[in-house]
Amino acid sequence: MGTDSHTPHVDALGVIAIGVGGLEAENVMLGRASYMRLPDIIGVKLTGLRQAGITATDIVLAITEFLREQGVVSSYLEFYGEGAAQLSLGDRATISNMTPEFGATAAMFYIDNNTLDYLKLTGREAEQIALVENYAKTTGLWADDLQQAEYERVLHFDLSSVGRNIAGPSNPHRRVATSDLASQGIASPVPQLDGIMPDGACIIAAITSCTNTSNPRNVIAAGLLASKANQLGLSRKPWVKTSLAPGSKAVQLYLEDANLLAELEQLGFGIVGFACTTCNGMSGALDPKIQQEVIERDLYATAVLSGNRNFDGRIHPYAKQAFLASPPLVVAYAIAGTIRFDIEKDALGHDSQGKPITLKDIWPSDEEIDAVVKQSVKPEQFRQVYQPMFDLKVDYGSASSPLYEWRPQSTYIRRPPYWEGALAGERSLQGMRPLAVLGDNITTDHLSPSNAIMLDSAAGAYLDKMGLPEEDFNSYATHRGDHLTAQRATFANPKLFNEMVKESGKVKQGSLARVEPEGKVMRMWEAIETYMQRKQPLIIVAGADYGQGSSRDWAAKGVRLAGVEVIVAEGFERIHRTNLVGMGVLPLEFTKGNNRHSYRIDGSETFDVIGTPAPGELLTLVITRTSGERIDLPVVCRLDTAEEVSVYQAGGVLQRFAQDFLENSQ
């Protein structure tokens, strides 16, 4: 169990690992059990062999599209079949890593010789490897013993059908074959004027994320492509901010061993850190001249990254859209300089003879990649990086007070308000007004972005008032310990579409809300402040797959502090739903076939909930229109376990703990 939504990365080893919300983890740390409904276990049979030159990224983007269409939310997946057996552990991990993008809870692979090969490659002791093999075979968990496993539902996916892909814009499951970029309206002829950024300019090209940089084949492929590009005299465009942020220091060691790190650095892909960066919105500042040109020309600027998420507004404030791609393809786009480039057909440059250079001329073969992996990825590199982690000696110094000295001027750590204000009172579930009426695929980046704080945002205005210079604003994620900054991130994403706010009959994009009953449109944070002053209980109405993306507890904390008591949607992503429960917000689901459109909800109504919340219970949502018309509709209570009911009734995780502590202290 891990609080990173990509914890299922480990599932590739045949070890069950799931991501949970931070609030659910707190619940466990405070002594309570973590419960979940028995999941659907779905078999995903992989057939066929992948085509030459196709990366694990191409495969996982195609699988993500496929599984989203099939509907596997909250399910446990088990990949098997001849296709799965041929995948290296690194390739399997690339697939398992994107479990939350499928909507699933886990994505397992069988334990087999490829698993043991990975353990050897990463420096595990022979005794441990033998134990893993013996245990798996003795308990019936070895791949050969699971050939007759039966699943209530089996999905079939042919690896040989996968070509080169990117995903985007806006969602990881919006796959586009690179051969179809022109027909899909992404690639188009763009005039290239010296020194001027073109339409669709890639202002960011980043090899990043645990999805891809933990797979040696993907990173080596990027290095080999860079080497070929350098030999042919190609270079990145000057407006492209490039970076390499591996998830492990071992990546640096094997790239250096293969003499490929210098090749990547020559194209601008130097190592900037070993952590989440661009993928989580930590892209850093652009060159001021580039940024100014983007603003003045209102340029359609983009980002291309080897990450796992590309939600609107996530990657960088000035990248209007983002696309996911394999590491070698990211390098190619840095050379191309624009997403409008037809990456399979257009010339990246010309050689010394004037001959056009296209992607196929620099794309490494599978044989080249495998040869470098075999020669340069070594067990001692992993031992060098990871063994010291377990040899730490900590000097805790002299004893100090366990109580933290709160600093009133801090914008990073502030005494939390979870027993005060909206969280201290009773939730009436009566007379609620909508804060927002939203569509499908609302992500935690819409609910509480983590990227850079801009001066013209509500959080930026607050930090400016606190005396911080703009260059020290940092990101929303770094201020999560200060609720006065973090709660101003609530619905602060400029890409939000709140259906309550319309202009000329169309929904207006922006961090906007409409305060009722006045019908006045204002910035979202100003609307929240208005409702907080009125002590107005709130509700959010949404479409399908509400809460996709990161396991960001502030996506639940922010709305609860705003006074939201209920969220009614067509469906919830698992981790965000548990975070809502952990904050005492009641998740309700429309019955099948019904949604906000069925009842013509426009945000002018008030809402009441009638009934006692219980797992799967049908409650009544009462809608009262301004005309006085009343509509009673059944909704499903999505408190899924008795434990969740207990946490919700207490008002949230911390309130539950406080009540238990006081009861046990008497």
TrEMBL record:
SUPFAM superfamilies the UniProt entry points to: Aconitase iron-sulfur domain, LeuD/IlvD-like
Keywords carried by this UniProt record: Iron, Iron-sulfur, Lyase, Metal-binding
Enzyme Commission no: 4.2.1.3
Enzyme class: lyase
GO molecular function terms noted in the UniProt entry: aconitate hydratase activity; iron-sulfur cluster binding; metal ion binding
Pfam families: Aconitase (PF00330), Aconitase_C (PF00694)
InterPro entries in the cross-refs: Acnase/IPM_dHydase_lsu_aba_1/3, Acoase/IPM_deHydtase_lsu_aba, Aconitase/3IPM_dehydase_swvl, Aconitase/IRP2, Aconitase_4Fe-4S_dom, AconitaseA/IPMdHydase_ssu_swvl
Domain spans labelled Aconitase/3-isopropylmalate dehydratase large subunit alpha/beta/alpha: 1-337
Cofactors demanded by this protein: [4Fe-4S] cluster
Keyword Repressor part of the UniProt annotation: no
Domain Aconitase A/isopropylmalate dehydratase small subunit swivel per the UniProt entry, residue ranges: 461-592
Family statement: Belongs to the aconitase/IPM isomerase family.
Protein name as catalogued: aconitate hydratase
Species in which this protein is naturally found: Agarivorans albus MKT 106
